[in-house]
Design brief:
The structure holds 3 protein chains of 3 kinds. Chain A is of the alpha/beta class. Helices cover 34% and strands 22% of the residues of chain A. In chain A, the strands form 2 sheets. Chain A has an 8-stranded mixed sheet, sandwiched between helices. Chain A has a 4-stranded antiparallel sheet with strand order 2-1-4-5. In chain A, helix 5 packs across helix 7. The model of chain A has no long low-confidence stretch (mean pLDDT 91). Chain B has 14 helices and no strands. In chain B, helix 12 crosses helix 13. Chain B is globular. The model of chain B has no long low-confidence stretch (mean pLDDT 87). By secondary structure, chain C is an alpha/beta fold. Chain C contains 12 helices and 12 strands. In chain C, strands 6-7-8-3-9-10-12-11 form an 8-stranded mixed sheet, sandwiched between helices. Chain C has a 4-stranded antiparallel sheet with strand order 2-1-4-5. In chain C, helix 5 packs parallel to helix 6 and helix 9 packs parallel to helix 12. The model of chain C has no long low-confidence stretch (mean pLDDT 88). The chains are: A alpha/beta, B mainly alpha, C alpha/beta. Chains in contact: A-B, A-C, B-C.
Chain lengths: 352, 320, 341
């Protein structure tokens, strides 16, 4: 079974007055039918830009796109604008972070859903309306027939996001891209929306790419996870492996710097020192090296490639430290040692 | 909403009272020609001037004059009689209103069509040659005084004195009811001249708004839905960007309905603007009062219309 | 952690809704804060959590007198500050400060960083000596981890995390007794959040400041706070020390919040029984009668619809406003600790 979505060495560079912004710099991954991929990263990691490019939504004049992205075998990078438009909202759908600003404030919600239908299918207004009402009900909006005629500002935040999901799924796409769909929502609403997406994903057997900065969110809904930093994937593995046996210092940093309900209350937060790099002047060698507690001289010169770990082809890491070393480091960190201590023990103690 | 409208209409009445009072005060407080003297003719003898003063009621105190005027206005809708030629002010104004309205509304249609199309194309093809030329031209349009443009257009295109004799020249206006086609052709030059600076301004305004709107999240959603780009721009982009245009157009039309003095002068169109100008020259208080009140009425009314329209354009706006 | 620095009693803030043709009559009100009582002890960190519309931000603004209460009292350091006139409030500002959420819009873009941090001195007429102010500002910058040489830079030249540090420095300038931080890290990237949280914690310990932390992120609040108050629709529904609240939640709403928080542990996520209240939070203009949570509560019974539960101590040591609080096993279900031991 070939993957539904295949991205191969995708690069998206923007020419700006300040220089060439390497927003996405060589990203490779794939998503199978019915599976959920989580892409985790902070601002500037390139997670949104890569998926927007896949959808054909980042075709600015100053964008230089190279590499390949294939949806069900069809090449998306070289596709015509018309072909891409045909896929969008139809086979590939996308929902965004802020449902209030993502829906047109002047049009009724029902009308915006009908528009989504009629953009791709021949359908009478009445038929489209019925289908829209059906989907509004399916996403859990009470009294959908009445709500069809409401404006976006008359919905609560959670209901708006549900309406967006209805609008995205109304043509039964095979792939749903969700860009930070719950970040702007209250925590109980967030849980409702995640449950909804999981349920619909199951019912419609849809593939999902969930973009988020929240490690808790990906722990719930995904099958596998890609961690992005400065335009590249630094680690890509099964969900369990990412949390149980991560092998990239950035992933460790993320896991250790967030307060967690499942750890002791006063367990100290270990922030990742420094700041994310400028995408115009990326660091030499490994992009993460200026912030990495385990950096060695070689890391400043050589660029690591995303490669599988010795015993698991599904787990890929872009790090110059040996897999053995990394595993031992993680054991130390998981046991509660600080990065400096772990480094002294393992890295400087011999193997690197 | 209806409570809001009623409240606003009451304010309209209050404002018009205020305007009439202020006009009275300005007329009597600031130095101007004595209307009685002007009326009296070339060589007025004091007795005649006195008699005229008495007849016009100018010898009474200001507040008495004001009271008489307002009484006539409120009870009989009587605007008084011109000091200059004794014709009913109401009659004169209503006679000349159609000309002003033709000019104002026609110009509005022209400037909206040009402004919106140019603005849209400029916004979509930002920094292209079209955009640069259009915005440059807009700068000229805004800067050029309207009477200069008017005289220039007559000089170039009037069929009596112009170089390229296409359009009817100054003074050729006829009412719509009299001769529709002549009415139309006589207004073409005035429409474009009056519209020029507005079109320029609106094009720039729409261009700026549309560029901002097109970077909004809901435009991204519309594209993500797979809509045709044309639909995205027109139905989603312009629909949002047009709201300040509606407001501005309403207010500008309101002002012009009170009389586009310069344009009417250059093209010799017998509108309310000319009337207002002449009445000031002649210290003709009732006429001044009449034209000022008319102008104020249109401005205040259009303000209300625009505010109410806003509630229909933007469903988030709610008045109580 | 001895006596209270702030005492809030029956605090109420209603924002009127008016309507009418000529005369605006009040036809309703937004019950932003509807009868809230608590103390903030000296030196502690009190966390206030809740979702949109619960009134936590309004409470913060009432304590710092950015808003005047509709009724009820606020005592600061023994003094009643509830209805002070604006002129009397100004000296208070030396003792209590706020840090805001959005580092991008809470700093004046036209002022240099040095000027922003030094403004409190200027407003209160302190540190007038030549160079004295600059030295104090640079000291503050160092204290929060900024390079003092950047004194003359503008906010846009700094990253989000650095801007938030500027906000902290400004709040610290006058050495206030109380700092209220309203969502100080929610606009920041995850790896920066930890830096700012650690900074706040270190400064608090070093300088003995009392901190009120308002956030919607329950993990953040738990990590930072000694005690936590959970708010819903303008009322406090549970108030307990952190350890207790997060291991033995008693109010069903607290249980719902905790069960909804995503945790970065796939196995725990799979084993938890989520208990999410259906529907949406009701509008604060028309809160439900008696117990405000009753329309959405899984344990609702007749009493809940007729009699409002008051905050009262329960066996866990927490104050809970509920007639039928969660049992230990119900709480454990929501936390996923039932099968997890």
């Amino acid at each position: 079974m070939s993957p539904l979505l295949e991205v191969d060495d995708l690069r998206v560079h923007f020419e700006t007055e300040d220089g060439l912004v390497k927003a996405v710099d060589g990203v490779t991954f794939s998503v199978d039918n019915g599976k959920v991929l989580g892409i985790v990263g902070e601002s500037g990691s390139g997670k949104s830009v890569s998926m927007l490019t896949v959808m054909g939504l980042s075709r600015a004049k100053n964008a230089r796109i190279s590499g390949a992205a294939r949806f069900d075998g069809q090449d998306l990078i070289s596709a015509s604008r018309e072909d891409l438009r045909d896929l969008r909202g139809n086979d590939i759908a996308m929902i965004f972070q802020d449902p209030l600003s993502s829906l047109h404030p002047f049009y009724k919600v029902g009308r915006q859903l009908v528009e989504a239908i009629q953009a791709h299918k021949y359908s009478s207004k009445a038929e489209a309306k019925e289908r829209a009402i059906e989907f509004l009900g399916m996403v859990g909006i009470p009294d959908p027939r009445r709500r069809f005629d409401n404006y976006p500002h008359e919905f609560s935040g959670g209901m708006r996001q549900r309406a967006m999901i209805a609008m995205a799924l109304i043509n039964e796409p095979r792939l749903l891209i969700a860009d930070e769909p719950t970040t702007a929502l209250d925590v109980t609403v967030q849980a409702q929306i995640l449950d909804l997406i999981a349920r619909l994903q199951n019912e419609l057997n849809m593939a999902v790419v969930m973009i988020t900065h929240d490690l808790g969110v990906v722990a719930e809904v995904t099958d596998h996870i890609a961690v992005m930093y400065a335009g590249r994937i630094v680690e890509h593995a099964d969900k369990r492996d990412i949390f149980r046996a991560p092998e990239h210092p950035y992933t460790w940093g993320l896991l250790q710097s967030i307060p967690r309900l499942d750890r002791a209350r006063d367990e100290p937060l270990v922030p990742i020192p420094g700041r994310p790099p400028s995408l115009i002047t990326l660091p030499t060698g490994c992009n993460f090296h200026p912030r990495c507690p385990y950096v060695r001289p070689r890391h400043r010169e050589v660029d690591p490639r995303l490669e599988p770990v010795p015993d698991d082809p599904g787990h890929r890491v872009a790090c110059l430290l040996a897999s053995d070393t990394r595993r031992r480091l993680w054991q130390e960190l998981a046991a509660g040692k600080q990065p400096e201590e772990a480094r002294e023990e393992i890295v400087e103690g011999g193997l690197a | 909403m209806s409570a809001y409208i009623i409240r606003r209409l009451l304010w309209v009445i209050v404002l018009l009272f205020l305007v009439s009072a202020i006009t009275f005060v300005i007329f009597f407080a600031l130095p101007s020609a004595d209307p009685a003297q002007l009326r009296a003719g070339r060589q007025p003898n004091p007795a005649l001037v006195e008699a005229i003063r008495h007849r016009l009621g100018l010898d009474k105190p200001i507040y008495v004059q004001y009271y008489r005027y307002m009484k006539g206005l409120v009870l009989h809708f009587d605007f008084g009689y011109s000091y200059q030629n004794n014709i009913s002010v109401k009659q004169q104004i209503f006679d000349r209103l159609p000309a002003t309205a033709s000019l104002a509304i026609g110009a509005a249609v022209v400037w909206l069509i040009i402004g919106i199309s140019v603005g849209t194309i400029s916004a979509i093809k930002r920094r292209s040659m079209f955009d640069r030329v259009a915005m440059g031209g807009a700068l000229v349009g805004i800067s050029a005084p309207v009477y200069w443009l008017g005289l220039l257009s007559l000089y170039l295109f009037a069929n009596d004195i112009g170089i390229i004799k296409i359009f009817p020249g100054s003074g050729s206006y006829v009412p719509l009811s009299q001769d529709p086609s002549k009415w139309f052709t006589s207004l073409i030059l005035p429409w474009f001249v009056l519209a020029a600076s507005f079109a320029a301004f609106y094009a720039r305004l729409l261009r700026g708004n549309l560029i901002e709107v097109m970077s909004e999240d809901y435009i991204r959603t519309a594209r993500a839905k797979g809509l045709r780009e044309r639909r995205v721009v027109l139905r989603h982009g312009i629909r949002s960007a047009i709201t300040p245009i509606v407001t501005a157009a309403g207010l500008d039309i309101g002002i012009l309905l009170g009389g586009a003095i310069l344009t009417e002068s250059v093209f010799n169109i017998p509108g309310v603007g000319r009337l207002a100008f002449d009445s000031i020259q002649n210290s003709d208080l009732p006429m001044i009062q009449g034209t000022v009140l008319l102008g104020a009425f249109f401005i205040v009314l259009m303000n209300l219309v625009v505010d109410v329209a806003y509630a229909f354009i933007d469903p988030r706006v709610r008045y109580s | 952690m001895s006596e209270p620095l702030v005492e809030v009693r029956d605090l109420v803030k209603h924002f009127p809704i008016t309507s009418g043709i000529l005369i605006q009559r009040q036809v309703g009100a937004v019950h932003a804060v509807d009868g809230v009582s608590f103390d903030v002890m000296r030196g502690e960190t009190l966390g206030i959590v809740g979702e949109t519309g619960c009134g936590k931000s309004t409470t913060a603004r009432l304590i710092t007198r950015l808003l005047e209460p509709t009724s009820g009292t606020v005592h600061f350091d023994g003094k009643d500050i509830s209805h002070l006139k604006p002129g009397q409030v100004k000296p208070l500002r030396k003792e209590m400060q706020m840090i805001f959420q959005d580092p991008y819009s809470s700093l004046n873009p036209r002022k240099t960083v040095g000027s922003i941090i030094g403004e409190p001195f200027r407003i209160h007429g302190l540190k007038e000596g030549k160079g004295e102010r600059k030295r104090s500002v640079q000291e503050l910058m160092e204290q929060v981890g900024l390079n003092p040489e950047h004194f003359n830079r503008y906010p846009h030249e700094f990253s989000g995390g650095q801007r938030q540090r500027i906000g902290v420095a400004r709040a610290l300038a006058l050495r206030p007794k109380l700092i209220i931080a309203d969502e100080p890290v929610s606009a920041l990237d995850v790896s920066i959040q930890a830096q700012i949280l650690n900074l706040l914690r270190d400064l608090q310990r070093e300088l003995g400041i009392t901190l009120v932390l308002i956030a919607h992120d329950l993990s953040v609040v738990r990590h930072m706070s000694d005690r936590v108050a959970v708010m819903y629709l303008g009322k406090i529904v549970e108030l307990a020390d952190s350890e207790t609240l997060y291991t033995q939640p008693r109010h069903p709403y607290t249980g719902a919040l905790l069960s909804a928080v995503p945790v970065p542990d796939p196995e725990l996520a799979a084993s938890r029984r989520r208990q999410i209240p259906g529907g949406d939070v009701p509008s604060p203009t028309n809160p439900p009668p008696a117990c405000r949570f009753h329309p959405r509560c899984p344990k609702v019974q007749d009493l809940c619809r007729t009699e409002e539960p008051l905050l009262s101590p329960k066996d866990s040591g927490a104050l809970v406003a509920c007639h039928f609080p969660l049992t230990e096993s119900e709480a454990a279900e929501r936390l996923g600790t039932a099968e997890h031991a």
